[in-house]
Amino acid sequence: MLVRFREAFQEFWRLKVSKVGVVFLMILVFLSVYVVTSYPLDFGVRYWNNPAYWADYPKSAPPSWVNYFSDQKLPEHHVFIYNKPSDIISTESGRTLLYVFRLDFQADKSPTFISFTLENLTYYSDPLVARLNVTRPDGKNIELYRYIAPAPYAGESPPYKRFYDSPKRISITGDISVASVLARFLLREYNVSIKPSEINSIGQHTIVFSIPGPDKEFYVLKGEYIFMVSINTYDSRDYVGEVKLVIGGNVYGFMGTDSLGRDLSIGLLFGFPIALFIGIVTSTITTLLGAGLGIVGGYVGGKVDEVIQRAADFVNNIPLLPLLIFLAFILGQNMWILVFLLVAFGWPTLTIIVRSMVLQLKSSQFIEAAISLGAPRLWIMFRHIFPQVAPFIFAQLIFFTPTFILLEAALSFLGLGDPTMPTWGQILEYGFRSGGIYVGLWWWIIPPGLLIIWTAITFVLIALGMEPVVNPRLRRMK
Amino acid sequence: MGLARTLSMRALTLVAVLVLVVFFMVIILGATGTSDKILQAMVNEEVMMLRQSLAKTIKDPQELERVINIRKQELMEFYGLTKPWYVRLPDMAWRVLTLDLGKARTLKTFAGGNKVSDIVIERLTNTIILVTSATIISALIGLVLGVRIATKVGGILDRISSYMSAISYAIPTWWIGIILIMVFSFLLKLFPFGGLYSAPPPSDPYLRFLDLLWHSVLPVTTLVIASVGVWIYTTRTIVLNTAQEDFVNAARARGLPEELVRRRYIMRVAAPPILTNVILGLATSISGAILTETVFNWPGLGRLFYDAVLVMDEVVVIALTYIFTLVYVVARFLLEVLYVTLDPRVRY
């Protein structure tokens, strides 16, 4: 048995398609393991389908590498998060926590917005005071914003905890006090008189990132910007959990974002384990069930065979997708239900083929010998018949896998995917339903499709490589 | 006699499949409580109409309530809502079989009606137009190329086609459709994004037909791309196997012209198994149609399916599942009639 397996493997490994297929499969498995071990399993519910989590991300932003292919460099989206201050200055009244964010800005357009967020603040005596300063490449410094944490309520005793439930997000863009600060700045530094309301409509972020011309037009100022959040504390036990600064851009990350601002690279990454799981698990169960019924039907014959054959013929005569849509719609969208349904409708093809193979085997001499020695039926089926058809069954397992991956994707695309986890089909579905394909958001539409194809092709390649090994005619000639 | 017997056996099997599918659906609907919901909606609909018509004649509100309640009880009785779901299984199955499913909640016919059977039936033609034209084109390309490749096995075209058919097995049809839209509609602006006609549709029937053709290019292409690989590959394999038979060699040895050998000796024998493959591929082309129509907003049954799922219109989903099974069964039967005509050996 072992020798035969080794021979079969050598035969398989000789082909180029097998090698490519196996390498692809290893990459897929590696990525899946990485995702499962490094992301929380409730990622879909907690983050992916939670719009609040993606509020600070740019909407429908292409990947940042598009800048390499265009003349006009678009600003990249930056999210800076600090859990610890980068520096602490002690003064007589207490300590000042400094958070420094450096941004080398080289785009031809100014960013789309600026915001900063404070989370998990604790103070014991006086409320914390936070300031946001920016030092521009031309050396000019602006104090953009000052924020004082809410004072203690009547009857509240220290420690005073603020923003533990939901973070405090301060949008510099659209803030009228920032607009007046900037109006004064422009008047002082450039002798440009402009009303705060006008600044508000131009956008505070545009003013911060540019130099005014003579006719109130603004030219982007490139170079290094240093944003600094300084927080004054008045007690040694005061604590600041997290400071986040977001400089909004038009391009984001490696794969871009969708129209809700979701980082597509994470969603696409999450699709790997789900596609592999649905493909392999469904295929394995289907193959075992289908082959088992085929062996039993073919070998036992009689009434049992008749029933199995009728059932197989019945299921085989049903148009699969409409009924799958019906069932997924009525029974609810859940991955386990889907696996069950795919198995329930997938087994007959294999049953019919395996049965005819078993019928041939049944009349062969070694089976007759086993019967005449008085071997029980189960023993014969398991020890004599199964090993003969096993390689073929295994090849079918591989061959069926892409079918199930594609079916899951198709159902997801029709809006019947499991809503608790992101899949490639669902990413495409949302891209289609929200009209992304009609405005050419290619980074949203092309990658998930390519990943589906890549995963499916991996199994097709392996199946092609196994063909000469398991083709019964070739095997018998040896 | 043999012919009629074979065909009626097939017809019986297919009818049995249809009935079983409907019963299976109805059991699921009953067990999940969905059928209660549907019948209740039908009762409520009638009660509402009754209230409107009675409100004019009966002025006393209490009397009105009493009359309506009696009528409502009668209706509940009539629809079987007072009995458990498994008792009214046959009744519900009959409803599905005759498409007597009441009114759709939000979906409408093109004219604005909301009777489920009307909505479904008027869309049927559009689906049939799409699927048949795509199948005919795939068949023509597949047969011509398949036969040609079979004469030059191992050539470049042969290798390309076998790789293509393997790859097409791994590509989702609907994604091809999306890519076609992005390239030919969005980028190159050559074809419309979707739909059946431009808005407003041209009034001249000739222009109207051209408009339809223009709109059908991308969806038909998508379906053809999805199925042509398999057509070529199976045609090639079957023709190749037939061409190696002794009687073909014998025909050639007799000096018959190659064209005649191909047409009478090879194709005549190869046609039935090729057709078998078409029959087996039928379910796939129906699935392909659902997804392709969705992508191209083609107002057929498939797009209706997507819309019904989107707005959670159960009755339409049920009607469509049934209609798709019906169309499948009918198409399959027609193909089997063709099969029996092509291959006299089947008539035993």
Descriptive account of the structure:
The complex is a heterodimer of chains A (478) and B (348). Chain A has 16 helices and twelve strands. With 478 residues, chain A is an alpha+beta fold. In chain A, strands 1, 4, 7, 8 and 12 form a five-stranded antiparallel sheet that branches. Chain A has a five-stranded antiparallel sheet with strand order 2-3-11-5-6. Chain A has a two-stranded antiparallel sheet with strand order 9-10. In chain A, helix 9 runs antiparallel to helix 10 and helix 11 (348-362) runs antiparallel to helix 13. Chain A is elongated, with a radius of gyration of 32 Å. Chain B is mostly helical and 348 residues long. Chain B is 78% helix and 0% strand. Chain B contains twelve helices and no strands. In chain B, helix 5 runs parallel beside helix 12, helix 9 (246-253) packs across helix 10 (258-296) and helix 10 packs antiparallel against helix 12. The A-B interface holds A 313-314, 317-323, 325-327, 329-331, 402, 406, 409-410, 413-416, 428, 432-433, 437-440, 442, 445-446, 449, 452-453, 456-457, 459-460, 464 and B 13-14, 16-17, 20-21, 25, 28-29, 32, 34, 166-167, 169-172, 174-175, 178-179, 181-182, 185-187, 193, 282-283, 286-287, 290-291, 294-295, 305-306, 309-310, 314, 317-318, 320-321, 324-325, 328-329, 332.
